[in-house]
UniProtKB/TrEMBL annotation:
<keyword id="KW-0539">Nucleus</keyword>
<dbReference type="GO" id="GO:0005634">
    <property type="term" value="C:nucleus"/>
</dbReference>
<dbReference type="InterPro" id="IPR001611">
    <property type="entry name" value="Leu-rich_rpt"/>
</dbReference>
<dbReference type="InterPro" id="IPR032675">
    <property type="entry name" value="LRR_dom_sf"/>
</dbReference>
<dbReference type="InterPro" id="IPR025875">
    <property type="entry name" value="Leu-rich_rpt_4"/>
</dbReference>
<dbReference type="Pfam" id="PF12799">
    <property type="entry name" value="LRR_4"/>
</dbReference>
<keyword id="KW-0677">Repeat</keyword>
<dbReference type="InterPro" id="IPR050576">
    <property type="entry name" value="Cilia_flagella_integrity"/>
</dbReference>
<keyword id="KW-0433">Leucine-rich repeat</keyword>
<dbReference type="Pfam" id="PF13516">
    <property type="entry name" value="LRR_6"/>
</dbReference>
<protein>
    <submittedName>
        <fullName>Leucine Rich Repeat family protein</fullName>
    </submittedName>
</protein>
Length: 93
């Protein structure tokens, strides 16, 4: 993966854990649709990220988004989230 990539699509790669993205210093769009991710984690270094797509995973809780200061779009559709909390850190647009 190009460390200067602005977009990365890892749809349907059976990813279980978000990790190893700390080298993506210019990433703006990260697509992790249709994977096996259970927890939102290890994204704090992706400060240029504007769009995060976690559609259809196994996420149960919204967390660890407070350092994604440029995030404009977040898709958590078709996950296992039952309570909407920890949204205060997200930027309103």
């Amino acid at each position: 993966v190009d460390p200067n990539a602005k977009e990365l699509d890892l749809t349907r790669h059976r990813i279980k854990k978000i990790e190893g993205f700390d080298f993506l210093h210019t990433i703006e769009y990260l697509c992790l649709r249709w994977n096996l991710i259970k927890k939102i984690e290890n994204l704090h270094m992706l400060v240029t990220l504007t769009e995060l797509d976690l559609y259809d995973n196994q996420i149960t809780k919204i967390e660890n988004l407070d350092e994604l200061v440029n995030l404009e779009s977040l898709d958590l559709s078709f996950n296992r989230i039952t309570v909407l909390e920890n949204l205060s850190a997200l930027k309103k647009t």
